[in-house]
């Protein structure tokens, strides 16, 4: 069935079919990925109908050195090309032969399968992470939308109070050795919540937090995210990281999840 | 070799045998902080000296890693453990159960970090060694062979998600050796009941400078520097 789908899409040429095959969100890099996807789909369809290697590491929206000096170039390179790539390779192995779905769709029930939880979570989290950051000069020009600012003030009192709580949650030993810190919109869509999750868990996964929540901002506090530049000085990494947060993207995420009561889609 | 002297130190043994009936009554009479400290007097935790130079474990582990790992990471656990223990003493004195309970996270994280790293430095060494005597016999009996044990310990340690430790330990009830893993800084004895013989730290800070993301290479190389004599002494002390 997958073989005929691949060939049909090629001939029919509808953008929707191509998108679903390549599992990419619409975006600047999607055209290149669609062509990659067609090639892969044809090859996969002809050679090995059951295994189309659904997921891939999305390109960074900026060069490796773009987040200097706050996040160093070697870290960005290894974090993206090695760590994220390993999660993608492993989630592809774990989902071989299964129906193709956007990685977001695997999150809700991720706790049911170890590999999906670890590698699927790892892929989603990192794909989400790259998009919410920008070079410091650009990030400095961004700011929360009125909607986001209102939610921040309502939920935390002020941006400064939110940042302070975020940094406390990110401090070593606060919750765990490896994990992520998230700002999420709650299910109802009327409040922001701050939460830390261990390893590659995220609040989209049923069972990780009291109720499913939708991240709009997240920070990787695994040691690999900062060790080369900061070593054990995680608090310094966290306070410097605010300089590369793209608040326009965070506001976009916020608007999306409030309206749709669903998680943000990611590339790859 | 100064290593063996530290192993049989009463206070350190106490730290690795939390709850053990072998604790001396002196220690039991002191405050609850004595249970967690690796120093006999005053219940204050101290960063132990390494039994070798920072560069002694090269090429398996670089001097840079050893320096950071010992003087920064382990030192921070010691500092924060002492802070938590002071608060614990105050809470115990006041009979404040809520405060005592509130401190458990910090105690487990920093106390576990201190215990684990103290054991770790001891079970590494620059001279190559192999298990002998009762340890060798126990390994063969419990796993079939040294290679089988190494294979299981490596695989399970590599497979730890995120931060944690791989351990070879002894079940003192059955006498059998077992491989176990613990998350974060959870200490082996308190978490599983097993007495630790060999620990392998797989927090990324233990290997990132030297191996980046390639944890399997680090775990393979660390077997070159495991001090099996110390592991044997620990097995004997556990009986």
Automatic annotation (TrEMBL), chain A:
<feature type="signal peptide">
    <location>
        <begin position="1"/>
        <end position="17"/>
    </location>
</feature>
<dbReference type="GO" id="GO:0005737">
    <property type="term" value="C:cytoplasm"/>
</dbReference>
<comment type="similarity">
    <text>Belongs to the iron/manganese superoxide dismutase family.</text>
</comment>
<dbReference type="Pfam" id="PF00081">
    <property type="entry name" value="Sod_Fe_N"/>
</dbReference>
<dbReference type="InterPro" id="IPR019833">
    <property type="entry name" value="Mn/Fe_SOD_BS"/>
</dbReference>
<keyword id="KW-0560">Oxidoreductase</keyword>
<dbReference type="GO" id="GO:0046872">
    <property type="term" value="F:metal ion binding"/>
</dbReference>
<keyword id="KW-0479">Metal-binding</keyword>
<feature type="domain" description="Manganese/iron superoxide dismutase C-terminal">
    <location>
        <begin position="144"/>
        <end position="252"/>
    </location>
</feature>
<dbReference type="InterPro" id="IPR036314">
    <property type="entry name" value="SOD_C_sf"/>
</dbReference>
<keyword id="KW-0732">Signal</keyword>
<keyword id="KW-0408">Iron</keyword>
<dbReference type="InterPro" id="IPR036324">
    <property type="entry name" value="Mn/Fe_SOD_N_sf"/>
</dbReference>
<dbReference type="GO" id="GO:0004784">
    <property type="term" value="F:superoxide dismutase activity"/>
</dbReference>
<feature type="domain" description="Manganese/iron superoxide dismutase N-terminal">
    <location>
        <begin position="55"/>
        <end position="134"/>
    </location>
</feature>
<dbReference type="Pfam" id="PF02777">
    <property type="entry name" value="Sod_Fe_C"/>
</dbReference>
<dbReference type="InterPro" id="IPR019832">
    <property type="entry name" value="Mn/Fe_SOD_C"/>
</dbReference>
<dbReference type="InterPro" id="IPR001189">
    <property type="entry name" value="Mn/Fe_SOD"/>
</dbReference>
<dbReference type="InterPro" id="IPR019831">
    <property type="entry name" value="Mn/Fe_SOD_N"/>
</dbReference>
<protein>
    <recommendedName>
        <fullName>Superoxide dismutase [Fe]</fullName>
        <ecNumber>1.15.1.1</ecNumber>
    </recommendedName>
</protein>
UniProtKB/TrEMBL annotation, chain B:
<dbReference type="GO" id="GO:0030145">
    <property type="term" value="F:manganese ion binding"/>
</dbReference>
<comment type="similarity">
    <text>Belongs to the iron/manganese superoxide dismutase family.</text>
</comment>
<dbReference type="Pfam" id="PF02777">
    <property type="entry name" value="Sod_Fe_C"/>
</dbReference>
<dbReference type="InterPro" id="IPR019831">
    <property type="entry name" value="Mn/Fe_SOD_N"/>
</dbReference>
<dbReference type="InterPro" id="IPR036324">
    <property type="entry name" value="Mn/Fe_SOD_N_sf"/>
</dbReference>
<dbReference type="Pfam" id="PF00081">
    <property type="entry name" value="Sod_Fe_N"/>
</dbReference>
<dbReference type="InterPro" id="IPR001189">
    <property type="entry name" value="Mn/Fe_SOD"/>
</dbReference>
<feature type="domain" description="Manganese/iron superoxide dismutase N-terminal">
    <location>
        <begin position="46"/>
        <end position="124"/>
    </location>
</feature>
<dbReference type="InterPro" id="IPR019832">
    <property type="entry name" value="Mn/Fe_SOD_C"/>
</dbReference>
<feature type="domain" description="Manganese/iron superoxide dismutase C-terminal">
    <location>
        <begin position="131"/>
        <end position="233"/>
    </location>
</feature>
<dbReference type="InterPro" id="IPR050265">
    <property type="entry name" value="Fe/Mn_Superoxide_Dismutase"/>
</dbReference>
<feature type="binding site">
    <location>
        <position position="69"/>
    </location>
    <ligand>
        <name>Mn(2+)</name>
    </ligand>
</feature>
<dbReference type="InterPro" id="IPR019833">
    <property type="entry name" value="Mn/Fe_SOD_BS"/>
</dbReference>
<keyword id="KW-0408">Iron</keyword>
<protein>
    <recommendedName>
        <fullName>Superoxide dismutase</fullName>
        <ecNumber>1.15.1.1</ecNumber>
    </recommendedName>
</protein>
<dbReference type="GO" id="GO:0004784">
    <property type="term" value="F:superoxide dismutase activity"/>
</dbReference>
<feature type="binding site">
    <location>
        <position position="201"/>
    </location>
    <ligand>
        <name>Mn(2+)</name>
    </ligand>
</feature>
<keyword id="KW-0560">Oxidoreductase</keyword>
<feature type="binding site">
    <location>
        <position position="117"/>
    </location>
    <ligand>
        <name>Mn(2+)</name>
    </ligand>
</feature>
<comment type="function">
    <text>Destroys radicals which are normally produced within the cells and which are toxic to biological systems.</text>
</comment>
<dbReference type="GO" id="GO:0005739">
    <property type="term" value="C:mitochondrion"/>
</dbReference>
<dbReference type="InterPro" id="IPR036314">
    <property type="entry name" value="SOD_C_sf"/>
</dbReference>
């Amino acid at each position: 069935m997958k073989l005929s789908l691949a060939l049909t899409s090629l001939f029919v040429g509808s953008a929707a079919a191509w998108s679903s095959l390549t599992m990419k969100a619409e975006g600047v890099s999607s055209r290149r990925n669609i062509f990659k996807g067609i090639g892969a789909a044809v090859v996969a369809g002809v050679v090995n109908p059951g295994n189309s290697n659904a997921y891939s590491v999305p390109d960074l929206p900026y060069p490796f050195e773009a987040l200097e000096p706050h996040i160093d170039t070697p870290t960005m390179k290894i974090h993206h090309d090695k760590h994220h790539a390993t999660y993608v390779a492993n989630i592809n192995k774990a989902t071989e032969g299964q129906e193709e779905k956007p990685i977001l769709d695997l999150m809700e029930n991720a706790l049911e399968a170890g590999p999906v939880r670890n590698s699927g979570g790892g892929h989603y989290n990192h794909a989400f992470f790259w998009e919410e950051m920008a070079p410091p000069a650009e990030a400095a020009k961004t700011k929360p939308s009125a909607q986001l600012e209102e939610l921040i003030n309502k939920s935390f009192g002020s941006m400064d109070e939110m940042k302070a709580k975020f940094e406390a949650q990110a401090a070593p030993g606060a919750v765990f050795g490896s994990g992520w810190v998230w700002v999420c919109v709650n299910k109802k869509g009327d409040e922001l919540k701050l939460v830390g999750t261990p390893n590659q868990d995220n609040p989209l996964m049923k069972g990780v937090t009291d109720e499913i929540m939708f991240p709009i901002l997240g920070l990787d506090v695994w040691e690999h995210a900062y060790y080369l530049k900061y070593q054990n000085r995680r608090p310094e990494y966290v306070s410097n990281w605010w300089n590369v947060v793209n608040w326009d993207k965070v506001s976009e995420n916020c608007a999306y999840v409030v309206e749709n009561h669903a998680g943000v889609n990611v590339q790859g | 070799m100064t290593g063996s002297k530290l192993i049989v130190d009463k206070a350190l043994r106490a730290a690795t045998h939390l709850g053990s009936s072998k604790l001396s009554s002196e220690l039991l009479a002191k405050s609850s902080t004595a249970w967690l400290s690796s120093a006999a007097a005053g219940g204050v935790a101290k960063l132990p000296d390494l039994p070798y130079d920072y560069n002694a474990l090269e090429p398996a582990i670089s001097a840079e890693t050893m320096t950071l790992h010992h003087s920064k990471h382990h030192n921070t656990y010691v500092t924060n453990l002492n802070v938590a223990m002071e608060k614990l003493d105050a809470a115990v004195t006041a009979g404040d159960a809520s405060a005592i309970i509130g401190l458990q996270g910090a105690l487990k994280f920093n106390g576990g970090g201190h215990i684990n790293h103290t054991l770790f430095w001891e079970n590494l060494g620059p001279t190559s060694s192999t298990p002998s005597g009762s340890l060798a016999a126990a390994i063969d009996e419990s796993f079939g062979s040294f290679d089988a044990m190494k294979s299981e310990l490596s695989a399970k340690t590599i497979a730890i998600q995120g931060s944690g430790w791989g351990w070879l330990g002894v079940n003192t009830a059955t006498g059998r050796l077992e491989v176990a893993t613990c998350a974060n800084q959870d200490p082996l004895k308190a978490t599983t009941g097993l007495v630790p013989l060999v620990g392998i730290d797989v927090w990324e800070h233990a290997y990132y400078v030297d191996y980046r993301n390639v944890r399997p290479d680090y775990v393979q190389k660390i077997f070159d520097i495991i001090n099996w004599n110390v592991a044997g002494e620990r097995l004997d002390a556990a009986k």
